[in-house]
Amino acid sequence: MSDVTVRRPTTQVRVRSLDGGRVIERPDRLVTEEPMEIRVHGPGQPPVPLAVTMRTPGSDFELAAGFCVTEGIVTSPASIAQVAYCVEGGVQRYNVVTVRLREAVSLDGHDRNFVANASCGLCGKAALDQVEVACASLDDDVRVAGSTILGLPERLRDAQQVFDMTGGLHAAALFAPDGELVVVREDVGRHNA
Fold first, then answer.
1. 102 lies in the same domain as 53
2. Do residue 42 and residue 115 come from a single domain?
3. Is 120 annotated as catalytic?
């Protein structure tokens, strides 16, 4: 049994702060930021490194799948058969995610030298033409009440559990047209969230 555990989104540390001219030592929680390597392969293919990104541990599989979709490695999430941590042991086990696709993949048309940091969602792009994302049009019958839209920032903030512990973290959420929270994600990188 390995002594490596899944990484946590926060880390407890001891800090020194000033209070009325006095230095006080106290515990505090900081957001964790660690690298994550994304590997990809199809049936009968060995996993190939695709990208390294900085992220807050916690939603690693969703981040890897989303990266593959937004970078055009797959055309839909249904093309992904499995997302898992690297089966090789070691200290980086939970910092390496392998995406297994349902069909063979060719990365010849993709510059596999992605290095993305938490501050930029455009990392790895060589030209602005590469930023365009092909998405299906939304159903234009969807209507959202203005009062619902105005209430979303507060609903998002109320759902930010890691922010509550640390005082600083980006978040993004998906809400239904009626304002119901579907999912919220927090990450040191706003584009990751």
1. yes
2. yes
3. yes
